[in-house]
Amino acid sequence: MTTIRPCSPADISKLNLCNLDPLTENYARTFYFDYLAKWPSMFIVAENQKGQVVAYVMGKVEEDPDYIKLMGDKYLPWHGHVTALTVAPQYRQMGLAKQLTAQLDRACEQENAWFMDLFVRVSNKTAINMYKKMGVFRRVVGYYSDNPTGKGTSEDAFDMRKSLSRDKKKTYIRENGENYRINPGDIYHA
Question: Which residue pairs, CB below 8 angstroms and at least 24 apart, start in 30-34?
Answer without folding.
Answer: 32/58, 33/9
